[in-house]
Amino acid sequence: MSSSTLRSSTPADALSVSIRELSRRFGDRVVLNELSLEIAAGEIVALIGPSGCGKSTLLRHIGGLDSPTDGSIAIGGLPVTGLDARSAIAFQEPRLLPWRSITRNVEVGLPRGKRTSADRDRVAELLELVKLSSSAHLRPREISGGMAQRVSLARALARRPGVLLLDEPFGALDALTRLSMQDLLLDLHTAEPATIVIVTHDVDEALYLADRVILLGAIDPTESAAHASIRSTVVVPGLRPRDRGSGDLAELRAELLEGLGVPTHHLSAR
Amino acid sequence: MSTLRTRVVSLNSGTPVLERPLVGDVTGAPVPVTSEPRPRRRWVRATVLGGVIPIAVIVLWQAIATSGLVPSYRLPTPLSVWAAGVDLYERGVLYQHIAISTQRVLLGFGIGAIVGLALASIVGLSARASELFAPTLGALRAVPSLAWVPLLGLYLGLNEDSKVALVAIGAFFPVYTTVAPALRHVDAHLVELGRSYGYSGPALLSLVQLPAVVPAVISSLRLALAQAWLFLVAGELLGASLGLGFLLVDSQQNGRIDRLFLTIILLGILGKGTDSAVGLLERFLLKRWGS
Questions:
Q1: Residue A107 pLDDT greater than 90, yes or no
Q2: A152 contacts A91 by C-beta, under 8 angstroms
Protein backbone atom coordinates (compact mmCIF):
# COMPACT_ATOMS: atom_id res chain seq x y z
CA MET A 1 0.00 0.00 0.00
CA SER A 2 1.45 3.33 -1.00
CA SER A 3 1.75 6.12 1.50
CA SER A 4 -0.41 8.43 -0.58
CA THR A 5 -3.46 6.24 -0.05
CA LEU A 6 -2.71 6.12 3.68
CA ARG A 7 -2.58 9.88 3.82
CA SER A 8 -5.81 10.57 1.99
CA SER A 9 -8.04 12.83 4.01
CA THR A 10 -11.23 10.85 3.43
CA PRO A 11 -11.80 8.03 5.90
CA ALA A 12 -10.32 4.76 4.69
CA ASP A 13 -12.85 2.09 3.84
CA ALA A 14 -13.44 -0.67 6.30
CA LEU A 15 -11.91 -3.90 5.04
CA SER A 16 -13.11 -7.48 5.31
CA VAL A 17 -11.08 -10.14 7.08
CA SER A 18 -10.93 -13.69 5.84
CA ILE A 19 -9.30 -16.41 7.94
CA ARG A 20 -8.90 -19.83 6.29
CA GLU A 21 -8.02 -22.96 8.25
CA LEU A 22 -5.57 -21.08 10.41
CA SER A 23 -3.38 -23.24 12.65
CA ARG A 24 -0.68 -22.07 15.00
CA ARG A 25 1.57 -24.39 16.94
CA PHE A 26 4.27 -23.40 19.43
CA GLY A 27 6.42 -26.52 19.44
CA ASP A 28 4.05 -29.39 20.33
CA ARG A 29 1.40 -27.08 21.72
CA VAL A 30 -1.45 -26.45 19.34
CA VAL A 31 -2.89 -23.03 20.09
CA LEU A 32 -5.14 -22.53 17.10
CA ASN A 33 -6.51 -25.49 15.20
CA GLU A 34 -7.84 -25.06 11.67
CA LEU A 35 -9.84 -22.00 12.48
CA SER A 36 -11.86 -20.35 9.74
CA LEU A 37 -13.73 -17.07 10.09
CA GLU A 38 -15.14 -14.51 7.68
CA ILE A 39 -15.61 -10.96 8.95
CA ALA A 40 -17.48 -8.48 6.79
CA ALA A 41 -16.16 -4.98 6.21
CA GLY A 42 -17.43 -2.64 8.92
CA GLU A 43 -18.54 -5.43 11.21
CA ILE A 44 -17.74 -5.50 14.93
CA VAL A 45 -16.73 -8.98 16.05
CA ALA A 46 -15.96 -9.92 19.65
CA LEU A 47 -13.73 -12.89 20.45
CA ILE A 48 -14.33 -14.48 23.81
CA GLY A 49 -13.07 -17.67 25.38
CA PRO A 50 -11.29 -19.05 28.41
CA SER A 51 -7.83 -17.76 29.28
CA GLY A 52 -5.12 -19.21 27.10
CA CYS A 53 -7.53 -20.20 24.32
CA GLY A 54 -5.66 -18.27 21.67
CA LYS A 55 -7.86 -15.17 21.37
CA SER A 56 -4.90 -12.82 21.45
CA THR A 57 -2.88 -15.12 19.22
CA LEU A 58 -5.63 -14.94 16.61
CA LEU A 59 -5.70 -11.16 16.87
CA ARG A 60 -1.93 -10.94 16.51
CA HIS A 61 -2.13 -13.05 13.37
CA ILE A 62 -4.65 -10.70 11.79
CA GLY A 63 -2.33 -7.80 12.58
CA GLY A 64 0.67 -9.60 11.11
CA LEU A 65 2.51 -9.65 14.45
CA ASP A 66 2.65 -13.44 14.31
CA SER A 67 2.63 -15.80 11.35
CA PRO A 68 0.53 -18.95 11.04
CA THR A 69 1.92 -22.46 10.99
CA ASP A 70 -0.76 -23.36 8.45
CA GLY A 71 -3.60 -21.59 6.74
CA SER A 72 -3.95 -18.04 5.58
CA ILE A 73 -5.38 -14.65 6.43
CA ALA A 74 -6.49 -11.97 4.03
CA ILE A 75 -7.56 -8.40 4.66
CA GLY A 76 -9.71 -6.86 1.97
CA GLY A 77 -8.99 -9.89 -0.21
CA LEU A 78 -5.20 -9.47 -0.12
CA PRO A 79 -3.10 -11.81 2.01
CA VAL A 80 -1.44 -10.72 5.25
CA THR A 81 2.25 -11.59 5.11
CA GLY A 82 3.69 -9.54 7.95
CA LEU A 83 3.15 -6.30 9.75
CA ASP A 84 0.36 -4.66 7.92
CA ALA A 85 -0.61 -1.00 7.55
CA ARG A 86 -4.18 -2.04 6.71
CA SER A 87 -4.74 -2.93 10.34
CA ALA A 88 -3.84 -1.25 13.63
CA ILE A 89 -3.74 -2.74 17.08
CA ALA A 90 -4.42 -1.43 20.58
CA PHE A 91 -3.32 -3.50 23.54
CA GLN A 92 -4.65 -4.09 27.03
CA GLU A 93 -1.95 -1.79 28.37
CA PRO A 94 -1.99 1.63 26.71
CA ARG A 95 1.75 1.31 25.88
CA LEU A 96 2.34 5.03 25.66
CA LEU A 97 5.89 6.35 25.37
CA PRO A 98 6.36 8.11 28.72
CA TRP A 99 8.72 10.77 27.38
CA ARG A 100 6.29 11.97 24.71
CA SER A 101 3.27 14.21 25.10
CA ILE A 102 -0.20 12.85 24.32
CA THR A 103 -0.08 14.51 20.90
CA ARG A 104 3.32 13.04 20.09
CA ASN A 105 2.14 9.60 21.23
CA VAL A 106 -0.79 9.72 18.81
CA GLU A 107 1.67 10.70 16.05
CA VAL A 108 3.36 7.31 16.48
CA GLY A 109 0.29 5.78 14.82
CA LEU A 110 0.64 7.91 11.68
CA PRO A 111 2.32 6.39 8.66
CA ARG A 112 6.05 6.96 8.97
CA GLY A 113 7.64 9.85 7.14
CA LYS A 114 7.89 13.57 7.38
CA ARG A 115 5.05 15.19 9.33
CA THR A 116 2.84 17.48 7.31
CA SER A 117 0.19 19.95 8.35
CA ALA A 118 -2.39 17.35 7.29
CA ASP A 119 -0.87 15.01 9.87
CA ARG A 120 -1.16 17.64 12.56
CA ASP A 121 -4.80 18.21 11.63
CA ARG A 122 -5.41 14.47 11.74
CA VAL A 123 -3.95 14.15 15.25
CA ALA A 124 -5.97 17.15 16.45
CA GLU A 125 -9.10 15.64 14.95
CA LEU A 126 -8.48 12.31 16.70
CA LEU A 127 -7.83 13.97 20.04
CA GLU A 128 -11.11 15.80 19.58
CA LEU A 129 -12.85 12.48 18.85
CA VAL A 130 -11.52 10.86 22.04
CA LYS A 131 -12.20 14.08 24.01
CA LEU A 132 -8.58 14.74 24.91
CA SER A 133 -7.92 18.05 23.12
CA SER A 134 -7.43 19.92 26.38
CA SER A 135 -4.88 17.35 27.60
CA ALA A 136 -2.85 17.15 24.39
CA HIS A 137 0.28 18.63 25.95
CA LEU A 138 0.39 16.33 28.98
CA ARG A 139 2.74 13.40 29.51
CA PRO A 140 1.30 9.89 30.05
CA ARG A 141 2.10 9.89 33.78
CA GLU A 142 -0.14 12.92 34.18
CA ILE A 143 -3.32 11.25 32.92
CA SER A 144 -5.64 8.53 34.19
CA GLY A 145 -5.86 4.95 32.92
CA GLY A 146 -9.03 5.65 30.96
CA MET A 147 -7.47 8.68 29.29
CA ALA A 148 -4.36 6.66 28.43
CA GLN A 149 -6.50 4.00 26.80
CA ARG A 150 -8.24 6.71 24.75
CA VAL A 151 -4.83 7.91 23.57
CA SER A 152 -4.07 4.33 22.56
CA LEU A 153 -7.32 4.18 20.52
CA ALA A 154 -6.57 7.51 18.85
CA ARG A 155 -3.08 6.29 17.97
CA ALA A 156 -4.51 3.12 16.42
CA LEU A 157 -6.94 5.15 14.31
CA ALA A 158 -4.29 7.64 13.16
CA ARG A 159 -3.33 5.70 10.05
CA ARG A 160 -6.98 5.17 9.07
CA PRO A 161 -6.82 1.40 9.36
CA GLY A 162 -9.32 -0.78 7.51
CA VAL A 163 -9.31 -3.15 10.47
CA LEU A 164 -9.00 -2.07 14.10
CA LEU A 165 -7.71 -4.82 16.40
CA LEU A 166 -8.38 -4.41 20.11
CA ASP A 167 -6.79 -6.80 22.59
CA GLU A 168 -8.80 -6.52 25.82
CA PRO A 169 -8.57 -2.74 25.53
CA PHE A 170 -10.73 -1.98 28.57
CA GLY A 171 -9.73 -4.98 30.70
CA ALA A 172 -7.65 -2.98 33.15
CA LEU A 173 -10.14 -0.14 33.65
CA ASP A 174 -12.62 0.27 36.47
CA ALA A 175 -16.22 -0.79 35.77
CA LEU A 176 -17.67 2.68 35.23
CA THR A 177 -14.85 3.89 33.02
CA ARG A 178 -15.21 0.70 31.02
CA LEU A 179 -18.87 1.41 30.27
CA SER A 180 -18.13 4.93 29.05
CA MET A 181 -15.22 3.62 26.96
CA GLN A 182 -17.58 1.16 25.26
CA ASP A 183 -19.83 4.03 24.24
CA LEU A 184 -16.83 6.01 23.09
CA LEU A 185 -15.73 3.06 20.95
CA LEU A 186 -19.16 2.93 19.30
CA ASP A 187 -18.93 6.68 18.61
CA LEU A 188 -15.52 6.15 17.05
CA HIS A 189 -16.92 3.33 14.93
CA THR A 190 -19.58 5.69 13.62
CA ALA A 191 -17.04 8.44 12.89
CA GLU A 192 -14.37 6.12 11.46
CA PRO A 193 -16.15 2.98 10.32
CA ALA A 194 -13.32 0.45 10.41
CA THR A 195 -13.93 -3.24 10.88
CA ILE A 196 -13.35 -3.96 14.58
CA VAL A 197 -12.14 -7.22 16.08
CA ILE A 198 -12.14 -7.03 19.86
CA VAL A 199 -10.82 -9.62 22.29
CA THR A 200 -12.55 -9.46 25.65
CA HIS A 201 -13.19 -11.45 28.81
CA ASP A 202 -16.34 -9.52 29.47
CA VAL A 203 -19.46 -11.20 28.05
CA ASP A 204 -21.57 -8.08 28.64
CA GLU A 205 -19.06 -5.98 26.77
CA ALA A 206 -19.08 -8.42 23.86
CA LEU A 207 -22.91 -8.39 23.68
CA TYR A 208 -23.10 -4.61 23.99
CA LEU A 209 -20.56 -3.87 21.27
CA ALA A 210 -20.51 -6.66 18.73
CA ASP A 211 -22.56 -7.71 15.75
CA ARG A 212 -21.29 -11.22 16.34
CA VAL A 213 -19.71 -12.86 19.35
CA ILE A 214 -17.33 -15.72 18.59
CA LEU A 215 -16.73 -18.21 21.39
CA LEU A 216 -13.29 -19.78 21.02
CA GLY A 217 -12.11 -22.93 22.73
CA ALA A 218 -11.38 -26.59 22.20
CA ILE A 219 -14.20 -28.36 20.39
CA ASP A 220 -13.18 -31.71 21.79
CA PRO A 221 -13.71 -31.40 25.56
CA THR A 222 -10.87 -33.83 26.23
CA GLU A 223 -8.38 -31.36 24.75
CA SER A 224 -6.93 -28.52 26.79
CA ALA A 225 -8.24 -24.99 26.34
CA ALA A 226 -5.58 -24.57 23.72
CA HIS A 227 -6.22 -26.43 20.50
CA ALA A 228 -8.78 -23.72 19.96
CA SER A 229 -11.20 -23.32 17.20
CA ILE A 230 -14.63 -21.70 16.96
CA ARG A 231 -17.04 -23.35 19.37
CA SER A 232 -20.03 -21.22 18.66
CA THR A 233 -21.06 -17.99 17.04
CA VAL A 234 -23.75 -15.76 18.48
CA VAL A 235 -25.35 -13.17 16.25
CA VAL A 236 -26.38 -10.37 18.56
CA PRO A 237 -29.88 -9.02 17.80
CA GLY A 238 -30.83 -5.38 17.85
CA LEU A 239 -29.28 -2.15 16.69
CA ARG A 240 -26.72 -0.26 18.67
CA PRO A 241 -26.79 1.45 21.09
CA ARG A 242 -28.32 -1.52 22.84
CA ASP A 243 -30.25 -1.64 26.07
CA ARG A 244 -27.75 -2.95 28.59
CA GLY A 245 -30.61 -4.50 30.59
CA SER A 246 -32.39 -6.19 27.68
CA GLY A 247 -33.94 -9.60 28.35
CA ASP A 248 -32.76 -11.02 25.02
CA LEU A 249 -29.20 -10.15 25.89
CA ALA A 250 -29.63 -11.75 29.32
CA GLU A 251 -30.49 -15.05 27.61
CA LEU A 252 -27.47 -14.81 25.30
CA ARG A 253 -25.30 -13.80 28.24
CA ALA A 254 -26.30 -16.92 30.16
CA GLU A 255 -25.66 -19.05 27.09
CA LEU A 256 -22.19 -17.60 26.55
CA LEU A 257 -21.23 -17.85 30.21
CA GLU A 258 -22.30 -21.48 30.31
CA GLY A 259 -20.19 -21.93 27.20
CA LEU A 260 -17.24 -20.48 29.11
CA GLY A 261 -17.88 -22.99 31.89
CA VAL A 262 -19.36 -20.50 34.36
CA PRO A 263 -22.59 -21.65 36.03
CA THR A 264 -25.04 -18.75 35.77
CA HIS A 265 -28.01 -20.08 37.82
CA HIS A 266 -30.06 -18.39 35.13
CA LEU A 267 -33.70 -19.44 34.99
CA SER A 268 -34.60 -19.38 31.35
CA ALA A 269 -37.84 -17.50 30.66
CA ARG A 270 -38.64 -19.98 27.94
CA MET B 1 8.41 17.92 42.20
CA SER B 2 5.06 17.99 43.86
CA THR B 3 2.45 15.69 42.39
CA LEU B 4 -0.60 17.47 43.67
CA ARG B 5 -3.44 16.62 41.39
CA THR B 6 -7.05 17.37 41.08
CA ARG B 7 -9.61 15.30 39.33
CA VAL B 8 -13.01 16.42 38.22
CA VAL B 9 -15.28 13.55 37.36
CA SER B 10 -18.21 14.21 35.13
CA LEU B 11 -21.13 12.31 36.54
CA ASN B 12 -22.81 11.31 33.33
CA SER B 13 -19.79 9.51 31.87
CA GLY B 14 -17.91 8.47 34.96
CA THR B 15 -14.69 9.37 33.17
CA PRO B 16 -12.20 11.80 34.60
CA VAL B 17 -12.58 14.73 32.26
CA LEU B 18 -9.86 16.82 33.82
CA GLU B 19 -6.83 15.53 35.49
CA ARG B 20 -3.67 17.48 35.41
CA PRO B 21 -0.99 18.40 37.84
CA LEU B 22 -1.55 21.95 38.93
CA VAL B 23 2.03 22.76 39.81
CA GLY B 24 3.69 24.48 36.91
CA ASP B 25 0.45 24.38 34.99
CA VAL B 26 1.23 25.53 31.46
CA THR B 27 -2.26 26.80 30.85
CA GLY B 28 -1.60 29.56 33.32
CA ALA B 29 -4.44 28.45 35.56
CA PRO B 30 -4.02 29.44 39.20
CA VAL B 31 -1.29 27.39 40.75
CA PRO B 32 -2.46 25.96 44.06
CA VAL B 33 -0.78 26.45 47.37
CA THR B 34 2.55 24.78 47.81
CA SER B 35 4.90 24.92 50.76
CA GLU B 36 8.02 24.73 48.59
CA PRO B 37 10.04 27.98 48.60
CA ARG B 38 10.61 29.75 45.33
CA PRO B 39 13.42 28.14 43.26
CA ARG B 40 15.81 31.03 43.68
CA ARG B 41 15.50 31.11 47.45
CA ARG B 42 15.84 27.36 47.63
CA TRP B 43 19.04 27.63 45.62
CA VAL B 44 20.46 30.25 47.98
CA ARG B 45 19.53 28.14 51.00
CA ALA B 46 21.14 25.03 49.48
CA THR B 47 24.34 26.96 48.79
CA VAL B 48 24.51 28.34 52.32
CA LEU B 49 23.72 25.00 53.95
CA GLY B 50 26.15 23.15 51.68
CA GLY B 51 28.91 25.54 52.71
CA VAL B 52 28.47 25.01 56.45
CA ILE B 53 30.52 21.83 56.80
CA PRO B 54 33.50 22.87 54.60
CA ILE B 55 33.81 26.12 56.55
CA ALA B 56 33.54 24.29 59.87
CA VAL B 57 36.21 21.84 58.74
CA ILE B 58 38.56 24.69 57.78
CA VAL B 59 37.99 26.42 61.13
CA LEU B 60 38.60 23.18 63.05
CA TRP B 61 41.63 22.43 60.91
CA GLN B 62 43.09 25.87 61.59
CA ALA B 63 42.42 25.45 65.31
CA ILE B 64 44.11 22.06 65.50
CA ALA B 65 47.04 23.08 63.31
CA THR B 66 47.80 26.18 65.37
CA SER B 67 47.20 24.51 68.75
CA GLY B 68 50.44 22.57 68.58
CA LEU B 69 48.68 19.24 69.13
CA VAL B 70 49.89 18.04 65.74
CA PRO B 71 53.33 19.04 64.44
CA SER B 72 53.26 21.23 61.33
CA TYR B 73 55.16 18.68 59.23
CA ARG B 74 52.13 16.42 59.71
CA LEU B 75 49.36 18.99 59.41
CA PRO B 76 49.89 22.28 57.59
CA THR B 77 47.65 25.24 58.34
CA PRO B 78 44.99 26.18 55.77
CA LEU B 79 46.88 29.40 55.14
CA SER B 80 50.14 27.59 54.35
CA VAL B 81 48.25 25.36 51.88
CA TRP B 82 46.88 28.48 50.25
CA ALA B 83 50.38 29.94 50.19
CA ALA B 84 51.72 26.78 48.57
CA GLY B 85 49.08 27.15 45.89
CA VAL B 86 49.95 30.81 45.30
CA ASP B 87 53.65 29.87 45.14
CA LEU B 88 53.06 27.18 42.51
CA TYR B 89 50.81 29.52 40.61
CA GLU B 90 53.40 32.28 40.56
CA ARG B 91 56.00 29.88 39.27
CA GLY B 92 53.59 29.02 36.48
CA VAL B 93 53.42 25.28 37.17
CA LEU B 94 50.07 25.02 39.01
CA TYR B 95 48.13 25.78 35.86
CA GLN B 96 50.20 23.24 33.91
CA HIS B 97 49.51 20.46 36.40
CA ILE B 98 45.80 21.18 36.43
CA ALA B 99 45.53 21.62 32.67
CA ILE B 100 47.34 18.43 31.75
CA SER B 101 45.34 16.36 34.25
CA THR B 102 42.04 17.84 33.10
CA GLN B 103 42.97 17.23 29.50
CA ARG B 104 43.79 13.58 30.22
CA VAL B 105 40.53 13.11 32.07
CA LEU B 106 38.37 14.74 29.41
CA LEU B 107 40.07 12.92 26.52
CA GLY B 108 40.03 9.55 28.26
CA PHE B 109 36.46 10.05 29.49
CA GLY B 110 35.30 10.99 26.00
CA ILE B 111 36.97 8.03 24.32
CA GLY B 112 35.90 5.56 27.02
CA ALA B 113 32.31 6.81 27.06
CA ILE B 114 31.94 6.69 23.28
CA VAL B 115 33.42 3.20 22.99
CA GLY B 116 31.33 2.14 26.01
CA LEU B 117 28.11 3.43 24.44
CA ALA B 118 28.91 1.78 21.13
CA LEU B 119 29.67 -1.63 22.62
CA ALA B 120 26.76 -1.38 25.04
CA SER B 121 24.41 -0.71 22.11
CA ILE B 122 25.66 -3.77 20.25
CA VAL B 123 25.60 -6.06 23.28
CA GLY B 124 22.33 -4.63 24.61
CA LEU B 125 20.41 -4.93 21.37
CA SER B 126 21.67 -8.21 19.95
CA ALA B 127 21.46 -11.44 21.92
CA ARG B 128 24.12 -12.97 19.68
CA ALA B 129 26.55 -10.09 20.20
CA SER B 130 25.89 -10.36 23.90
CA GLU B 131 26.82 -14.05 23.89
CA LEU B 132 29.94 -13.21 21.90
CA PHE B 133 31.24 -10.19 23.85
CA ALA B 134 29.74 -10.23 27.33
CA PRO B 135 31.93 -12.96 28.94
CA THR B 136 35.16 -11.42 27.66
CA LEU B 137 34.24 -7.91 28.70
CA GLY B 138 33.13 -9.22 32.08
CA ALA B 139 36.54 -10.82 32.61
CA LEU B 140 38.40 -7.69 31.49
CA ARG B 141 36.33 -5.66 33.91
CA ALA B 142 37.44 -7.89 36.76
CA VAL B 143 41.10 -6.94 36.18
CA PRO B 144 42.12 -4.37 38.83
CA SER B 145 42.81 -1.02 37.24
CA LEU B 146 46.42 -0.72 38.30
CA ALA B 147 47.29 -4.00 36.59
CA TRP B 148 47.03 -2.22 33.26
CA VAL B 149 49.59 0.43 34.09
CA PRO B 150 52.81 -1.51 33.44
CA LEU B 151 51.42 -3.05 30.25
CA LEU B 152 50.19 0.26 28.89
CA GLY B 153 53.55 1.75 29.84
CA LEU B 154 55.37 -0.89 27.82
CA TYR B 155 53.06 -0.75 24.82
CA LEU B 156 52.42 2.97 24.60
CA GLY B 157 55.36 4.35 26.57
CA LEU B 158 55.19 6.49 29.69
CA ASN B 159 53.56 9.30 27.79
CA GLU B 160 50.21 10.89 27.18
CA ASP B 161 48.82 7.94 25.23
CA SER B 162 49.22 5.45 28.04
CA LYS B 163 47.57 7.77 30.57
CA VAL B 164 44.67 8.67 28.32
CA ALA B 165 44.23 4.96 27.53
CA LEU B 166 44.13 4.12 31.23
CA VAL B 167 41.52 6.82 31.90
CA ALA B 168 39.51 5.56 28.92
CA ILE B 169 39.52 2.03 30.38
CA GLY B 170 38.28 3.49 33.64
CA ALA B 171 35.48 5.44 31.94
CA PHE B 172 34.50 2.62 29.60
CA PHE B 173 33.27 0.06 32.12
CA PRO B 174 30.67 2.07 34.05
CA VAL B 175 29.08 3.12 30.76
CA TYR B 176 29.19 -0.36 29.26
CA THR B 177 27.96 -2.20 32.35
CA THR B 178 25.09 0.23 32.95
CA VAL B 179 23.85 0.90 29.45
CA ALA B 180 23.98 -2.63 27.98
CA PRO B 181 21.54 -4.15 30.51
CA ALA B 182 19.39 -1.01 30.36
CA LEU B 183 19.00 -1.49 26.61
CA ARG B 184 18.28 -5.18 27.07
CA HIS B 185 15.56 -4.43 29.59
CA VAL B 186 13.72 -1.73 27.70
CA ASP B 187 10.02 -2.52 28.14
CA ALA B 188 9.31 -5.27 25.59
CA HIS B 189 5.74 -4.00 25.31
CA LEU B 190 6.96 -0.64 24.05
CA VAL B 191 9.34 -2.29 21.59
CA GLU B 192 6.48 -4.41 20.27
CA LEU B 193 4.33 -1.32 20.04
CA GLY B 194 6.96 0.36 17.88
CA ARG B 195 7.21 -2.70 15.67
CA SER B 196 3.46 -3.01 15.28
CA TYR B 197 3.38 0.57 13.97
CA GLY B 198 5.97 -0.23 11.34
CA TYR B 199 9.16 0.90 13.10
CA SER B 200 12.28 -1.25 12.87
CA GLY B 201 16.07 -0.94 12.99
CA PRO B 202 17.43 2.58 13.56
CA ALA B 203 13.93 4.12 13.45
CA LEU B 204 12.78 1.83 16.26
CA LEU B 205 15.99 2.57 18.15
CA SER B 206 15.36 6.28 18.09
CA LEU B 207 11.61 5.93 18.75
CA VAL B 208 11.82 3.60 21.74
CA GLN B 209 15.14 2.22 22.93
CA LEU B 210 17.38 5.29 23.01
CA PRO B 211 14.90 7.59 24.77
CA ALA B 212 14.13 4.80 27.23
CA VAL B 213 17.78 4.50 28.30
CA VAL B 214 18.58 8.23 28.54
CA PRO B 215 18.41 8.19 32.37
CA ALA B 216 20.70 5.15 32.52
CA VAL B 217 23.16 6.74 30.09
CA ILE B 218 23.39 9.90 32.17
CA SER B 219 23.93 8.14 35.48
CA SER B 220 26.55 5.94 33.83
CA LEU B 221 28.36 9.06 32.55
CA ARG B 222 28.53 10.46 36.07
CA LEU B 223 30.00 7.21 37.35
CA ALA B 224 32.41 7.12 34.42
CA LEU B 225 33.63 10.61 35.17
CA ALA B 226 34.38 9.71 38.79
CA GLN B 227 36.21 6.61 37.57
CA ALA B 228 38.14 8.72 35.07
CA TRP B 229 39.60 10.89 37.85
CA LEU B 230 40.40 7.77 39.86
CA PHE B 231 42.27 6.17 36.99
CA LEU B 232 44.01 9.44 36.16
CA VAL B 233 45.56 9.68 39.60
CA ALA B 234 46.49 6.00 39.48
CA GLY B 235 48.23 6.55 36.15
CA GLU B 236 49.99 9.73 37.18
CA LEU B 237 51.13 8.28 40.50
CA LEU B 238 53.00 5.54 38.70
CA GLY B 239 54.86 7.49 36.10
CA ALA B 240 54.43 11.06 35.02
CA SER B 241 56.40 14.27 34.99
CA LEU B 242 53.40 16.58 35.11
CA GLY B 243 49.88 16.45 36.43
CA LEU B 244 48.17 16.36 39.79
CA GLY B 245 49.05 12.70 40.43
CA PHE B 246 52.71 13.54 39.81
CA LEU B 247 52.40 16.51 42.14
CA LEU B 248 51.17 14.11 44.85
CA VAL B 249 54.17 11.78 44.49
CA ASP B 250 56.61 14.64 44.15
CA SER B 251 55.25 16.36 47.27
CA GLN B 252 55.37 13.14 49.25
CA GLN B 253 58.99 12.51 48.27
CA ASN B 254 60.00 16.06 49.17
CA GLY B 255 57.99 16.18 52.37
CA ARG B 256 55.85 19.03 51.07
CA ILE B 257 52.73 18.24 53.07
CA ASP B 258 51.24 21.64 52.21
CA ARG B 259 51.35 20.74 48.52
CA LEU B 260 49.88 17.30 49.25
CA PHE B 261 46.90 18.91 50.93
CA LEU B 262 46.64 21.42 48.12
CA THR B 263 46.57 18.69 45.46
CA ILE B 264 43.97 16.63 47.29
CA ILE B 265 41.74 19.69 47.64
CA LEU B 266 42.24 20.57 43.97
CA LEU B 267 41.29 17.03 42.90
CA GLY B 268 38.13 17.32 44.99
CA ILE B 269 37.22 20.66 43.44
CA LEU B 270 37.94 19.54 39.88
CA GLY B 271 36.05 16.27 40.32
CA LYS B 272 33.05 18.04 41.80
CA GLY B 273 33.20 20.68 39.07
CA THR B 274 33.12 18.22 36.19
CA ASP B 275 30.44 16.19 37.98
CA SER B 276 28.30 19.31 38.32
CA ALA B 277 28.70 19.97 34.60
CA VAL B 278 27.33 16.50 33.85
CA GLY B 279 24.63 17.17 36.44
CA LEU B 280 23.48 20.21 34.47
CA LEU B 281 23.36 18.10 31.32
CA GLU B 282 21.35 15.53 33.27
CA ARG B 283 18.75 18.08 34.34
CA PHE B 284 18.36 19.28 30.79
CA LEU B 285 18.07 15.77 29.31
CA LEU B 286 15.74 14.42 31.96
CA LYS B 287 13.42 17.33 31.42
CA ARG B 288 13.23 16.40 27.78
CA TRP B 289 13.35 12.60 27.99
CA GLY B 290 12.38 11.74 31.56
CA SER B 291 8.97 10.23 32.07
A1: yes
A2: yes
